[in-house]
Recover the amino acids of this structure.
């Protein structure tokens, strides 16, 4: 068989809808300034699908710093991987400031969060070790574990009783192999918005010997009294061994970092293949990240604005009888009942008739029969945006109950 034959025979669970959905439901193009309102298909829409939590993407000081950094250094400098020719004082400064902000001894920059997480896992564990992880772990965690030659045990999402069962299994196995145990969880789960039970997980350290790695992509900058993350929210920073954050959410940039004890970070510096063998984070992004971190530390007003919008949106949706699950973070899922056809019709209705653009998630990402519309509030949204959206979603839910939406895919050929 020609290896390329699968490209036409089986496009995969998402690719199977490519012909009908590409450019509208998948790979849509949002144009204009990054804000609460942007242009989609030639019309202004109210946007709820950007991870620009603190509104820093178009903050005047951030834009100015980004432009100055690009003008002074260009996008190529430093040229090469950190270990070979890509090290600068600014990279080291950002690492020191990040470590201090999240309450750790040391940190190391990652050119991309996704591949950084893959390499962190690959570098930390060998075939003697056991990974124990949450069933709703992000794709970057799953891909990292695919490189692991040892055992891994999964526990149902946030089920601490079952986690303890898996820890007993892992402990018994590592007694034989001489390896260690790594628990991997998330601080904020990006689809459901609920929090990993970090307080309950770290309390198990009294009974079991393990280390914990927390992916806090959505929690960094949004959670905790200073925005230092979900472990700060739970007051367990001293018990979380490795803290992973990205710049793609609250920092409105590219890249990420891993923070922890100095010796562990030193080990990762020399063993994360995605960093050893890939180009250093370009200087304009480093300079820009320093400015973003400065604003995050010194201007809590942005986080306050975000949470005012979050509370108004989530409380308003619940008051209208909409199901937003167990979210405890800015991530706001609205869960409805229906199939892919109904999900398509609802999304089309929201975009074309209500001018609301949000992300849609269906099976296989969520169970069959569930439609998840994910709203991402930001500091640049307004209370008027919130009230309009609440009324629109209440109307959509009523239409769904009255079987207004057909089971057929929306005809978007004329769009």
């Amino acid at each position: 068989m020609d290896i390329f034959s699968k490209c036409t025979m089986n496009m995969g669970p998402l690719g199977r809808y490519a012909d009908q959905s590409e450019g509208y439901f998948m790979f849509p193009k949002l144009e204009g300034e990054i804000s609460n309102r942007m242009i989609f298909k030639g019309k202004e829409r109210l946007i709820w699908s950007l991870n620009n939590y603190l509104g820093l993407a178009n903050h005047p000081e951030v834009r100015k710093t980004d432009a100055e950094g690009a003008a002074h250094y260009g996008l190529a400098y430093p040229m090469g991987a950190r270990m070979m020719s890509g090290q600068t004082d600014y990279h080291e400064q950002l690492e020191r400031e990040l470590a201090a902000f999240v309450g750790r001894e040391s940190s190391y920059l990652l050119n991309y969060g996704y591949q950084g997480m893959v390499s962190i896992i690959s570098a930390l564990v060998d075939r003697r070790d056991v990974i124990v992880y949450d069933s709703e772990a992000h794709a970057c965690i799953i891909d990292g574990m695919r490189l692991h030659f040892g055992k891994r045990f999964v526990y149902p999402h946030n089920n601490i009783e079952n986690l303890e069962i898996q820890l007993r299994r892992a402990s018994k196995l590592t007694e034989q192999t001489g390896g260690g145990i790594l628990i991997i969880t998330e601080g904020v789960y990006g689809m459901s918005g609920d929090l990993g039970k970090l307080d309950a997980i770290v309390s198990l350290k009294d009974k079991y010997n393990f280390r914990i790695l927390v992916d806090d992509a959505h929690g960094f900058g949004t959670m905790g009294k200073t925005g230092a993350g979900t472990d700060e929210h739970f007051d367990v920073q001293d018990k979380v061994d490795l803290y992973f954050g990205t710049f793609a959410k609250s920092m409105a940039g590219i890249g990420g970092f891993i923070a922890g004890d100095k010796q562990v970070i030193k080990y990762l510096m020399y063993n994360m293949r995605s960093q050893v063998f890939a180009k250093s984070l370009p200087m304009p992004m480093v300079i820009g990240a320093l400015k973003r971190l400065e604003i995050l530390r010194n201007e809590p007003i942005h986080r306050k604005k975000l949470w005012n919008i979050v509370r108004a949106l989530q409380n308003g949706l619940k008051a209208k009888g909409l199901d937003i699950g167990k979210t405890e973070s800015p991530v706001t899922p609205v869960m409805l009942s229906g199939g892919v056809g109904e999900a398509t019709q609802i999304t089309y209705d929201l975009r074309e008739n209500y001018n609301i653009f949000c992300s849609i998630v269906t099976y296989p990402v969520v169970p069959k029969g569930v439609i998840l519309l994910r709203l991402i509030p930001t500091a640049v949204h307004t209370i008027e945006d919130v009230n309009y959206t609440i009324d629109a979603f209440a109307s959509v839910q009523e239409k769904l109950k009255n079987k207004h939406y057909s089971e057929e895919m929306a005809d978007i050929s004329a769009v």
User: Anything to note?
Assistant: DSSP finds 16 helices and 14 strands in the chain. The mean pLDDT is 94. Residues 78-281 form a domain with the Aspartate Aminotransferase; domain 2 fold (CATH 3.40.640.10).
